[in-house]
Amino acid sequence: xxxxxxxxxxxxxxxxxxxxxxxxxxxxxxxxxxxxxxxxxxxxxxxxxxxxxxxxxxxxxxxxxxxxxxxxxxxxxxxxxxxxxxxxxxxxxxxxxxxxxxxxxxxxxxxxxxxxxxxxxxxxxxxxxxxxxxxxxxxxx
Length: 141
Hints:
Blueprint: E1 3-15, E2 23-44, E3 47-64, E4 69-84, H1 85-98, H2 103-128
Antiparallel strand pairs: 1-4, 2-3, 3-4
């Protein structure tokens, strides 16, 4: 697998104070690749390494009062990816030109990022008293 390492650069969880009756609406998750850059001075067996930086956000918007947010979770992370020099050069060239990553690589990176970030968002939301940003399993009677 070409994923070498994942790590978080920043995690922020914030709960807003809202007075009166509230009704939680749907929370919105967003995930995007924000940067792709070469990991300098690292080449092993004709492989190069690049860093994909991503941002994962959860916004807890209220149904009532409308337009208000009870809180948010923001996570910035990095994924180190290894591949052949030719493949890495192609990825970097496409990113610099169009801010785009080919679909199969983007899918791999975003799946890893989503998996890691959802778990971290779950922990961070609990710390500040926000609902879990992912549905949790429940047993029925």
